[in-house]
Amino acid sequence: MSEPGLLIRSLSGRQSARNFHSFVINEIGLGVASGSFALGSILPNDAELMDRYGVSRTVLREALKTLEAKGLVEARAKVGTRVQPRSRWNLFDRQVLFWIFHARPEAGFLDSVAELRRTLEIQAADLAARRRNSEQVRMMRYWLQQHDISAAMPEPCGLAAYEIHRLIFEASHNPLLRSATGLVEFALASALRRKMARGDLDFAAEKVEPYEALVRAVEAGDSPQAVGCIERILSIDEAILRAS
C-alpha cells in the first residue's frame, strides 16, 4: 500500500519499486489505469507476464492477488485474469489513486474527487474545531510554517499543505474521515501538478492567508470560521483545476 505523501513526492517522477513484487503490482496497475490493459480484456498468460517483467510465477501470482483485492482484475479458472470495470476498483485505495494520477485522470474523475472532497473536508473542519487537542494544533502550526518557507519548492510545499489537511482529519477523531485522506492528497497533487505545468514560481501564495485563518479557527474552537476557511481553500484548488 502506498504511504501517505508518496503521491505528492512522486511529482518529479514515479518512484522506483522496492522489490519485484511491488514492481509487478505497479506495472500492471498502471497498465490497467492507463488503458494499456483495456477494461474487460484478458491479461496475457502467466508465461508471457513472467517473461515481460522478469519474475517468478510465485511473485506474479502474489501480485495478481493484490490487484484482485483492489478490484482491478479478477481471475477465473479456464478464462484467465480479466481487467475489471472502474466501478469495481477500490477508489479509496492510495495505490489505486497513485496509478490513476500517473495515468492522467480524465476531467470527469477530477470533478468527482472535488465533489467528494468538499463534503469530507467541510465535515472534518467542523469536527476538528470542536475536538482538536493542543498537540494537533501545534503540529498544524509547524506545517503551516513549513508551507510558507518552502513556497518555491513544489513537493515540500505540497507535502506541508497535505499535512495540514491530514491533521484536520486526524483532529476530527472520526476514523472513517481519516481513512479518506488519500482522496485529499490526490486533489492537492493534481492542483500542484497543474501549477507546475503553467510555470508558477510560488506554490503557497494563494493559500497562505486561508491556511493561517483555518489553523486559528481550529485552535479557537470556531467551527463556522473553520468551515469557511476550508471552503476558501477548496475553491482555490478547484479554480486551478478548472483553468485551461
What does this structure look like?
There is one protein chain. With 244 residues, the protein is mainly α. It folds into 2 domains: 10-88, Winged helix-like DNA-binding domain superfamily/Winged helix DNA-binding domain (Arc Repressor Mutant, subunit A, Orthogonal Bundle), CATH 1.10.10; 105-242, GntR ligand-binding domain-like (Four Helix Bundle (Hemerythrin (Met), subunit A), Up-down Bundle). It is built from 12 helices and 2 strands. The protein has a two-stranded antiparallel ribbon. Helix 6 (107-131) crosses helix 10 and helix 8 (154-171) packs antiparallel against helix 10. The longest helix has 25 residues, at 107-131. The protein is elongated and about 60 Å long. It starts with 5 loop residues before the first helix and ends with a helix. The relative contact order is 0.13.
Number of helices: 12
What would you call the shape?
Answer: elongated
**Biggest sheet record:** 2 strands, antiparallel
CATH class of the largest domain: Mainly Alpha
- Rg from Cα: 20 Å
Taking all residues together, what is the mean pLDDT? 95
Distance between the termini: 33 Å
Strand order of the largest sheet: 1-2
Based on helices, strands and strand pairing, what is the structural class?
mainly alpha
Strand content: under 5%
Report the order of strands and helices. HHHHEEHHHHHHHH
Determine the CATH superfamily of the largest domain: GntR ligand-binding domain-like
How many β-strand stretches? 2
CATH level-3 fold name of the largest domain: Four Helix Bundle (Hemerythrin (Met), subunit A)
How helix-rich are the residues, as a percent range?
Answer: 55-70%
